[in-house]
Amino acid sequence: MGTASGVKPDHTTIAAALTEAAQSINSHRSLDQTLDAIVRAAQQTVPGFDHVGISVVHGNGNRRIETRAGTGRIVWDVDELQYKLAEGPCYDAIRHGGVTVMDDVETEDRWPQYVEEVRQLGLRAQMGLQLYSDGTTLGGLNFYAAEPGVDPDAVQLGELFAAHAAIALGRARHEHQLNESVASRQAIGTAVGIVMERYRITEDRAFQFLVRASSTGNVKLRSIAQQVVDDANAQFQPSGDTPSHG
Q1: Is the separation of the CB atoms in 144 and 123 below 8 Å?
Q2: 11-173: CATH class
Q3: In whole angstroms, what is the distance from residue 102 CA to residue 125 CA?
Q4: pLDDT score for 59
Q5: Which end is more exposed in the chain, N or C (fewer Cβ atoms within 10 Å of the end residue's Cβ)?
Q6: Taking the complete model, does pTM exceed 0.90, yes or no?
Q7: Strand, coil or helix: what is 152?
């Protein structure tokens, strides 16, 4: 149950846990494996908490929040409650930044509906830290305790783990954007070749054809290109078969 027993980790334990987290980020593990390593290292190192979770923000505007890693079922249960009610320590930390602490659910008055419901789940204390990189909110690192009281040392240690988690999420987002860019270029290049062949026009005119179709239909250029490619593939499918995108 981590360090909830009240025994504080020494500097050697902390350094080893942070080293493990850093190594997981720099290894060739998947994002989920990396985030799982971070929450488990934080669970064993940050004093006063039983469970740890990581939330990830998706999209723009009214962005969706998803729990991506956790050390126990209660992480998902509590997080889903926060997302549903749009309130709570971890939700506020993600939306407004910094660190948000709930020292004791019995004396908390900032989130009345959330407190009433989360009490039934056995939660007494909580801490949420925003994860951000280059000025962009990536998600949150969240801590949960069955006993009241948040150790001041926990905030500093939590911030160290939050920094590692932000690096992991930032790296994953960068890799996703690179993969998306490569896929877009491939689809557009293939579509340009198809249009060139179909209408016997130059590469530049074929590209402009796709751009005009994108602008007129208010559809992303990649989507237009993928449709051209899918239509061309469909012509070569045996009768009765449907194109596969997998």
Answers
A1: yes
A2: alpha beta
A3: 5
A4: 72
A5: C
A6: no
A7: helix
